[in-house]
């Protein structure tokens, strides 16, 4: 089930209606990091693909893309209850991007091409290597997660400086061609000056303090890499993962929190452990025994749900005899726009949304499909155009069919 939102998370969303990033429902998380940290192996595990994952730098050249279902006990409950012929979960789009190295922003290791691939995604899984293994090459010949974190951040900031400079030049050219009919807005000048000062100090733009107007301008005109939300996935040895301890974790946690992140942004996991568990998928008894002995769980579900949440996405359900489906929307989406995800005519002709919160349905349905007990308890609501759809709502939309003919 997707992680519950804290009161702080809710307040942040309410206070920051304008957020960095594109507004759409098919946003992507990119797997980013140095070579040989486990990016492609993680991608394969998450998506059950077979992307190359060899032990040499730049094994991945062109980005691999796939999607993985978002695990959710609520969706499973609804599917088990209705047993419809058609089911459709929410999906997280994931891109495996080739490893970056120091100097990538200047073209080292085909870096500019790889940085453009990062620019094309909406959020980042920053995979950090936190294990010693002489058989797995490290691009810098030694293990130092803090150095590696600094390297990636510096390269992304340098690339953003390049993007910023090109944007400024393009804007100046527009002003020049307008011949005095168009002037550069003070907001643009002030914002770009502020961005430049941050990036020159290797500070990501997302860590700054920005007004809604500044964020809207950045989204529209500049589209920087360092505005993208980031989750740090720390790849441990199986031994360290089983004992839930690593000499590198405190150093990584300190770096992340000092650079604008929170403890929730850090997810320790182990490719070695996950691959072992995956190898037992066709032998349920052996898999259960391994889980029992190890006393820890897979982190793949958490990685997916955290990535989905980090992108500002959520979903509502439609449920019935024919289909149970998750419909992905952005947080703070109003009911008409949520209806439009199903079909544009639903938004144009929106009349009302009949809504029940998932938890209310679960607690009151008495194991049946009828909305009778929910209505009797006063938990079946009719909502209008200003209703902000909540994660996990079960909704039936009513709309005017005359909108279809207009």
TrEMBL record:
Keyword ATP-binding tagged: yes
One GO molecular-function entry: GTP binding
Residues annotated as domain TGS: 312-399
Classification lineage: Eukaryota, Fungi, Dikarya, Ascomycota, Pezizomycotina
Keyword RNA-binding: no
Alphabetized UniProt keyword annotations: ATP-binding, Nucleotide-binding
Recorded GO CC terms: cytoplasm
Species assigned in the record: Massarina eburnea CBS 473.64
Protein name in the entry: Obg-like ATPase homolog
Gene3D superfamilies: 3.10.20.30, P-loop containing nucleotide triphosphate hydrolases (3.40.50.300), TGS-like domain (1.10.150.300)
Domain (OBG-type G) ranges: 27-289
CDD domains listed in its UniProt record: TGS_YchF_OLA1 (cd04867), YchF (cd01900)
Domain of life: Eukaryota
